[in-house]
Amino acid sequence: MSGSNKQPDEKLTWKPGKRDLLFLAIVAAVVLILTLGSSDRTTKPVPDDAIHRTVSSRAACMVCHGKGGVHPQPKGHVRSGQCFQCHLQPKGWRGSVK
Ligand code: HEC
Ligand code: HEC
Fold this sequence. Notes:
Blueprint lengths: L17 H23 L9 H5 L3 H8 L17 H4 L12
Bound molecules: heme C (2 copies).
């Protein structure tokens, strides 16, 4: 009946310690990043308006979306590449594919 007579199963009951909580937090963060990341991957489509339905060349796009254009690409935007690889064309697209 002294203090050394502890419950034998005390070590078997799982109580979340600091390490477990950290682990769970990391798992939650990874899941969150993956879900947010995947939804981020959908890029804005090309607007379905008179301008965008007829323009088809990259050079033409850059007149308005280059530096100093009416609607420049955001900072850090990819410098090269086919616009339509990422920005989907509108459904009523009529421009020639280039
Ligand atoms: C005559 C100027 C002009 C040309 C040429 C032009 N755009 Fe735009 N674009 C705009 C303007 C103005 C906006 C912003 C207003 C809007 O949404 O219509 C815009 C918006 C956009 C957006 C963003 C839409 C959004 O939801 O914010 C994308 C993507 C885009 N254009 C892609 C292109 C691509 C690709 C081309 C070439 C095929 C192109 N544009 C050619 C003027 C132009
Ligand atoms: C590798 C993929 C990729 C390519 C290729 C690409 N873009 Fe983008 N663009 C993006 C992403 C990502 C954004 C960030 C905003 C978003 O989700 O649309 C963006 C944003 C833009 C915006 C701003 C949209 C707004 O928020 O108003 C414009 C304008 C634009 N791009 C034009 C172009 C043009 C013109 C070309 C071709 C020269 C082009 N992009 C090629 C991925 C791309």
